[in-house]
Design a protein that fits this description.
Strand content: 5-15%
Number of helices: 27
Largest sheet: 6 strands, mixed
Shape: globular
Radius of gyration: 28 Å
């Protein structure tokens, strides 16, 4: 089947990868950051992919009056997996030596997710927000886009061929309808579920369908007709892309209707299929075409390289180091394209008499198995405390693969039976770090546990006006509590000297309403908060072989001063059904006199400045067990 090669498409790919490179490198010139919206390069790739895949499928079907799904999927595997394998293998070597145990295990999970093309799902459900920092220390975070694209490749050919066979005349209409519905879905979903919206195919499929619409249109477009208009539109599209790279700097706003800007820009560039137009001649210059040809391998290499540089602390603000990292990425991408991509994409089905697909499958299985076999060996390189660093305990407790944290309507319920009593945990992310411990306690005591935790959303009415903690969440919580008569409710207020008396009086009123209905309430007094990020400080000591490890701490007197108002308020509440827990008795004035500590030599009590580690939550759990035993 004859292919019509468009060199300007590779030029457009180069523009997309330049945007992504500059975004992750955070290149600053004269106090101005170049391409802060470069992450939108991925959206450009999606449009290009939708276009190329559609033209490929339709051309094959029109030529042969049939389409080989088997050959299509084999081509996709040979296109994507070989380079990914090389990058993963090299990244695994660096990960073994540079990542802490908990991160090495997560890296292996991301390897599996990448190989089987569900890393977008994995990163969403593990709470890894893309764009929280321009460059993540998770080497394979960028593989989310490959997985999403492959999910599209699996479903789309069946959809397209089916429509082409049965309702060919409605193809463009259906594509347009899909675009509209997906944009609406993405824009609405982004309001409350930004992570899901960013990572998942339903919110992104419209970008691929934009390219698909072009693929369905272009074969019928006459190059000579409206040539000047198309050239102007192509140049406008090029300018729009540069504009979006330069001024769209918030990943939380994408994909939404705002993402139409770079997507339409890519659409306008591709629709100009006249190779003599100014934009296409510019995009067809050899350096840009060359960069476009290696763009897939370059995309794969650049993120791990920059991530490891960040982990060892060499990328920082040094412009020259960033330039060298980009050069290394380009060199590795060139070698990978020349000796790996081209080798596996060739028509020959075998390499040294071995079937290519079998070779890829074998290397994949060996890589995964070998990495898992290294876990225990890697752990032994580090002290016990290193195994606890950076574990996001507020995301650990899950149900149906989804964290119990940040649920607004359908709260997690564990061990729910017809007649067993219920324990509710209500609060913010600090309380969410207690979820796993309370779940374990509840199951041991044969109690039902329901978690109601949201960021910045405790039991104070003051927060009801915020998006994170709306009245709707409060109402949903109350409705669920009232379904479980005479349950136990665990509540918390942290520090809060600035909270006004009216807010505290409202809290008191609602607490007594439950108490008078024979609900049991456990008040957790303010949990000490560190001034330093505990995991980060311990990590520094481990990296520098400092023994003994420094105990991150704050003055007990400062803690008591900052939490004085809440202490006085909680002390004033009394009822036969009211119980109290004092966390400072566990963390303060023990290992260090007149200090509250965030860690010991062997254990973290806090993951960061405020969130409890597993060990920290277990210390509070000791007092909770005593109270729960007393209640039940």
């Amino acid at each position: 089947m004859k292919k019509t090669y468009r060199s300007e498409i590779d030029g457009l790919r180069s523009l997309a990868i330049i945007g992504v490179l500059f975004y992750h490198a955070e290149i600053v010139f004269d106090s101005y950051r170049i391409f802060p919206g470069g992450f939108l390069g991925v959206d450009i790739f999606f449009v290009i992919s939708g276009y190329l895949i559609t033209t490929l499928i339709l051309k094959e079907y029109q030529l042969k009056n049939s389409f080989s799904f088997k050959n299509f999927y084999k081509r996709r595997v040979k296109r994507l997996l070989p380079s990914l394998l090389i990058v993963v293998i090299v990244s695994s070597i660096f990960s073994y030596f540079l990542l802490l145990p908990i991160h090495f295990v997560e890296f292996i999970k991301s390897v599996v997710a990448s190989f089987f093309f569900f890393s977008n799902i994995f990163f969403h459900y593990s709470g890894q927000a893309y764009g929280a920092q321009a460059l993540s220390e998770i080497p394979l975070l960028h593989s989310w886009s490959l997985s999403l694209e492959e999910q599209f490749y699996i479903l789309y050919p069946i959809f397209l061929v089916g429509i082409f066979i049965f309702i060919k005349k409605k193809l463009k209409l259906i594509l347009i309808l899909g675009i509209i519905l997906s944009i609406i879905f993405a824009t609405i979903t982004n309001i409350n579920h930004q992570s899901f919206n960013f990572y998942m195919l339903p919110s992104r499929v419209w970008e691929l369908l934009f390219g698909a619409l072009l693929g369905a249109n272009i074969p019928n477009i006459n190059i000579k007709k409206n040539e000047k208009i198309k050239e102007i539109l192509g140049f406008l599209g090029f300018v729009i892309i540069l504009y979006s790279f330069s001024f769209f700097d918030n990943t939380n706003n994408h994909p939404t209707y705002l993402t139409l800007v770079p997507v339409i820009g890519a659409y306008l560039v591709i629709q100009d299929n006249n190779n003599k137009s100014f934009t296409n001649r510019f995009l067809s210059v050899k350096p840009l075409v060359g960069l476009g040809l290696i763009s897939y391998s370059l995309y794969l290499w650049h993120h791990p390289i920059f991530s490891f540089a960040k982990i060892i602390g060499v990328e920082k603000e040094d412009f020259l180091i960033k330039v060298w990292l980009i050069i290394v990425s380009i060199l590795l991408a060139t070698l990978t394209y020349r000796y790996v991509e081209k080798t596996f994409r060739g028509n020959n089905e075998k390499i040294y008499r071995f079937n290519k697909i079998n070779v890829l499958a074998t290397i994949t299985i060996i890589t995964i198995s070998f990495l898992y076999s290294l876990v225990d060996y890697q752990k032994k390189q580090y002290p016990v405390i290193a195994h606890q660093i950076d574990e996001k305990t507020w995301y650990v407790t899950k149900k149906y693969f989804r964290p119990c944290f940040q649920r607004k309507t359908f709260f997690c319920s564990f061990n729910e039976k017809k007649n067993n009593n219920t324990i509710f945990l209500i609060g913010d992310s600090i309380m969410a770090s207690l979820q796993e411990e309370i779940q374990n306690i509840s199951i041991k005591k044969d109690l039902n546990f329901i978690s109601m935790t949201n960021a910045g959303c405790d039991f104070l009415k003051i927060y009801q006006k915020s998006k994170k903690c709306s009245k709707k969440i409060f109402d949903n919580r109350n409705k669920k509590i009232l379904e479980k008569k005479e349950s136990t409710i665990i509540l918390h207020i942290n520090y809060g000297n600035k909270i006004n008396d009216e807010t505290l009086n409202d809290f008191s009123k609602r607490v007594y309403q439950y108490l008078d209905k024979n609900y049991k309430i456990i008040l957790i007094y303010p949990i000490p908060q560190m001034n330093q990020h505990v995991s980060a400080e311990v990590k520094k000591d481990i990296a520098n072989d400092i023994v003994p490890i420094k105990l991150v701490n704050i003055k007990l007197s400062n803690y008591l001063k900052e939490s004085k108002k809440i202490f006085s308020f909680f002390d004033s509440l009394n009822h036969k059904n009211l119980y109290k827990v004092y966390p400072h008795e566990k963390f303060c004035d023990s290992n260090l006199k007149d200090k509250c500590i965030g860690n010991t030599q062997n254990h973290l009590y806090f993951i960061d400045t405020a969130h409890l580690s597993r060990k920290g939550s277990r210390l509070i759990g000791v007092d909770l067990i005593k109270i729960i035993d007393n209640i039940y």
